[in-house]
From TrEMBL:
Name of this protein: Sugar nucleotide-binding protein
InterPro entries: NAD(P)-bd_dom_sf (IPR036291), RmlD-like-bd (IPR029903)
Domain RmlD-like substrate binding as annotated: residue spans: 1-235
Entries under Pfam families matching the protein: RmlD_sub_bind
Gene3D superfamilies (alphabetical): NAD(P)-binding Rossmann-like Domain
Species annotation: Streptomyces narbonensis
Length: 279
């Protein structure tokens, strides 16, 4: 199976590359600014704004499978239009496509939990770009899989883990919000679940998030305890009233997806415990 991982030098992309190599594959992966650290993959420069370059990479790699784990943030040309270009190219070449999306497509208002059939109602430019990409993938390539996820944690290298360390050390000003709720997932669980979906012919929307709904502050406390830091050093605040955009309580319900998977998506309380294997 020839695999191309879009955004292979990102946090999730790097774990997808690592698991592919461990499974005996020789994956190809793309980067925008610099290649990833894993020399066992073949690296290709790609700017998703450039459709000609995309076609050249696809011609060179000739993948049977394409996983879009890129992160263009709120950049519409990368996140939304780039997702559309990938869907068009994958459909035209009959490439198996798994598109990674985000819980940012939801507003977090009027609903306790979001299941796979819930329609996006984003509040931020990033969420809107992700929702547009989802729509493009599902319309242009009904055989593709769209996998929504939440905060990705693991191995101390995630953005949130680095933030917790900086706040605890006092090298960064800020606070962790007590009213900003998400369902964190471990990067190894997420990547394994994505590979499981990729190897199947399953299509449609999947939710890949952990079962524990936690505030960013509660998550920070768990990270601090795991890493031997003093949770009391973590500043806290409420996000409501700050004017910051985005949903406050966005709980992805992954139970339906979990029933279809062998990979178990652990909750943050489990994978951040001191004795959790592979944490």
């Amino acid at each position: 199976m020839t695999v191309l991982i879009i955004g292979g030098n990102g946090f999730l992309g790097a774990e997808l590359v690592r698991q592919a190599v461990s499974a005996g594959l020789h994956p190809a992966a793309t980067f925008h600014s610099r290649p990833g650290d894993d020399g066992r993959a073949t690296w290709h420069h790609l700017n998703l704004r450039d459709p000609i370059r995309l076609e050249k990479v696809l011609d060179t790699v000739a993948p049977a499978v394409l996983i879009n784990a890129s992160s263009g943030g709120a950049d519409w040309a990368v996140t939304a239009e780039g997702g559309l270009r990938l869907a068009q190219a994958a459909a035209g070449r009959s490439i198996r496509l798994v598109h990674v999306s985000s819980d940012a497509v939801f507003s977090g208002t009027g609903r306790d939990r979001y299941i796979e059939s819930c329609l996006p109602d984003p509040l931020t430019p990033y969420g809107a770009a992700k929702a547009a990409a989802e729509t493009a993938v599902r319309l242009l390539y009904p055989d593709a899989a769209v996998a929504r996820t939440s905060l990705i944690i693991g191995h101390g290298r995630s953005e949130h883990e680095r933030l917790v360390h900086a706040l605890a050390a006092g090298t960064l000003q800020g606070a962790l919000f007590t009213d900003d709720i998400r369902c964190p997932v471990h990067v190894t669980d997420l990547a394994a679940a994505l590979w499981e979906i990729t190897r199947s012919d399953a299509a449609g929307v999947f939710h890949l998030a952990g079962p524990d709904a936690l505030s960013r502050y509660e998550l920070g406390e768990l990270i601090a305890r795991r890493d031997g830091l003093d949770p009391a050093r973590l500043p806290s605040a409420r996000r409501s009233g700050t004017g910051l955009p985005g949903g406050l309580e966005v709980r992805l319900d992954s139970r339906t997806t979990q029933q279809r998977l062998r990979t178990r998506l652990r909750g943050a309380r489990e994978f951040l415990s001191a004795n959790s294997p592979g944490r």
